[in-house]
Amino acid sequence: MHLTTLIAWHDSGWNGKICRNPEKNKYCESFRHIKKGKFGLQYGKNPIEEIKCENNAGKIANEVEYNGKKWDACGNEINLFYQYKFNSMVYGWTTIKEENNKKIDVLKDIFLDYWFNFYYNDDALCFLYCRENPVVDDRFLVACVKPKDKKLVIECSVKDNNGNYQKYLISIEDKDFNKLNDVNFYKSLFKNLNYGKIYPYISIEFDPEDIIFIIPYQELGEYFGYENIPEDLILNIPNEMKKSFLYTTNFLPNEFSCIILEKALEIIKNIKNLMEEH
How high is the pLDDT of residue 228? Predict the structure, then answer.
């Protein structure tokens, strides 16, 4: 099994910099958490002008800060090929609601089955794709990387004495993976904390040399215009594979990965030929 991960469209190529034209990039706004951060609303109801995307276009995202409050819109996607890591919410869970509005997202057995297959596969890959985008009216693939480090992380939001929530993170060791379908295991991790919500996510790290391919859609868009990029330069998701490209994360069978890699190689060759001609 291989991993598929949804990322938001970014007009600079996920290089650690805020979009060059944030106002024109409406495609990221379908993600609620990104939309809040984009307009400076991640810290409350009143927008903070100094950390809005439109007021920091093209800047290195990690350096944007105002009065101790950091820019945080699409920090996960934006740093993909800058810090060479990303996090992704899992798709298979059951939410357990408890008293005082506490919630715990417990992983389902089917996710754990797929995760074991992915985790222990030394040749496993991560395929990254976009949903809303300026190129096509459907999902399409943008990149593929080979993980150096794969983790399941449990995040817990804890209310402090001032009523503010702080985040606590615990990386789960592989010997405990089979406990992640048990709500009591989650409680045991944070038993002494006044948690509000507990949920798992996947954390992936890789090295620059682990990048299998990146399709440079942003550069192609500048050259042709996004609506005019030739079809033979676009890595569409075949119909028979679309079920593997639903949700924030999903899993892709081995036989499908070979088809994608062959098509990606063909596209990279086409782009190289285009560059040589011009």
Answer: 92
